[in-house]
Amino acid sequence: MAFQYAYMFNELIQKLKQYDTVGVFSHIRPDGDCIGAQVATCLWLQENDIRAFAFNDDDVPLNLKWLADYYPIRQPDEKSLQKCDAFVLLDGNSPKRFGSYSDYIQDDPKPTYMVDHHPDPYDGFDFSISVEEASSTCELIFHLFLQNDISQLNEDAAKALYTGILTDTGSLQYDSVTPETMSIASELLRIGGFRPNEVAERVFSNKSLNQLHLLSKAMGTIELYEDNQIAVMYVTKEMLEETNTTNDDCEGFVGYPLSVTGIKAAILFKALGDGVKMSLRSKSNDVNVNKWARKIGGGGHKKASGAWHPGPLEETIKEVVEIGAEQLVSVDKS
Amino acid sequence: MAFQYAYMFNELIQKLKQYDTVGVFSHIRPDGDCIGAQVATCLWLQENDIRAFAFNDDDVPLNLKWLADYYPIRQPDEKSLQKCDAFVLLDGNSPKRFGSYSDYIQDDPKPTYMVDHHPDPYDGFDFSISVEEASSTCELIFHLFLQNDISQLNEDAAKALYTGILTDTGSLQYDSVTPETMSIASELLRIGGFRPNEVAERVFSNKSLNQLHLLSKAMGTIELYEDNQIAVMYVTKEMLEETNTTNDDCEGFVGYPLSVTGIKAAILFKALGDGVKMSLRSKSNDVNVNKWARKIGGGGHKKASGAWHPGPLEETIKEVVEIGAEQLVSVDKS
């Protein structure tokens, strides 16, 4: 794998060094991994005397704004886009994940490079580094420095890369974290001269009081079904209104029902107006929530999927749990 | 530091190899770090043909029972204690942290060794490795293997050590985590051939439904004081009764008020019958909660302290917040 990375990144480095100006996009509705990778990539370009623009259609989330102090992130405009000789797309597997980039590039085709770790990558880019097994795009971008000149990795870039590894792995807890991931995290701490709490507190200790009150209400709804194998939690429009919160404030909530001891799967239902959206999570190899979600017209991955149901809430819960129960039964029989 | 560890652990290794039978104690009210260190140390002794007993006065917590499958942990009894030629005490800084050990040793003195990372260690042991800067006792015990024969570190011992590092660092997020800690975590994953989720899910995904309902009620009480600088949360006896929970179920709750964006300190008050116990936490270098707690007759560390107040709850909150406010004012002036 190390050799494969060296080969891929050497090729990317040679390509990028041809240009005077490069536009670097993070995906729409940005998260810690794409913003971290974007900031570090721009700092790398700058270190190598290549002018860099960091673009995103959307605002940087509140808990990541400090990263934009390391390198400014702007909304793309015609004039800036025209100045770019090439583009780098980070942490997304197809042009449409990058908003106005996908429109612009049709009128004014320019070389585009992608670095990403999502499955099923679009194959029309000029060069792509797509490694599904990587914990994060930030883990990949570390090799951009490693293969060129590791001394160009400064404190800011180290913290940016650490942020993406941290946020895309649930604090280094997911099964995507390899010994190599952990060893890169160690190198980032050493090179950057910081401790993990500096990044973790900025990224995670940023709840609003309203959000905690919403979480309180939602957590009170958790119930277990099917012999305590399925945990269900819900959020209603009324709860959002009572706590002055929005759908975005539900981020991460599904982890709470999923943390109940002994369960195999958890579902968060959100009845926010237009039917009921749901997030399905499995913590058992026996339960494939992708199969489950597909039966309701949704889909995703084995351990994490989503779906929609016309509602109302009570019927939705009953129906979705029953569909899950069938899968639990077929597991018991197999 | 590496040289210092080598020297200390070589000395400990030579001492332990003199004995046929060693009793290994983890501290009373055990946690992931002491149990992980205990299991790994017993496996190390076994690998080196030394008979090992793992002792604890208390039960192993539910979320750590799987570690006791790697090496049996028993309550100390006269007969087993008599069989031991020496004792090793793990993750506690004085004999009284080890329950019945401290009584037994007075009647039947035997060589005792300590490995720990708490401040102010008792200095009467025959040999101690006490490193306050270490993230965890498990990080220290890794060097027992490293200095002797790293090939003796098997999958079980690696998972045991990983558990202690994980639980004592809030999932590798505290400021006690150094590049060295992270690099040891990487080695444990590599040598043990496992991924972090295997340990993290066992250790952290073990909430009872009742505990989540208690957390729901407690989270609903969070309020901000002193220009949103202090977050307060409380738990009452009635809440425990309504949710069929105990004081133990409040473990970790103080992290929720502490996660509110922009605050400097958080307090969890527990009015469970006999006055009001409180946990004070700071996330600002400006606020020393040890000084704060001392004014109410408590104490601890700068960032984490505890205290007791006769109550009732409402007056306690008012008084404790006012004392904290003085400190915030004196900070503003300094």
UniProtKB/TrEMBL annotation, chains A, B:
GO molecular function: nucleic acid binding
SUPFAM superfamilies: DHH phosphoesterases
Top-level taxonomic group: Bacteria
Domain DHHA1: 229-321
Boundaries of every DDH domain copy: 22-165
InterPro entries reported in the protein's UniProt record: DDH_dom, DHH_sf, DHHA1_dom, Oligoribo/pAp-PDE_c-di-AMP_PDE
Protein name: Phosphoesterase RecJ domain-containing protein
Organism in which the protein naturally occurs: Fodinibius salinus
Source lineage: Bacteria, Pseudomonadati, Balneolota, Balneolia, Balneolales
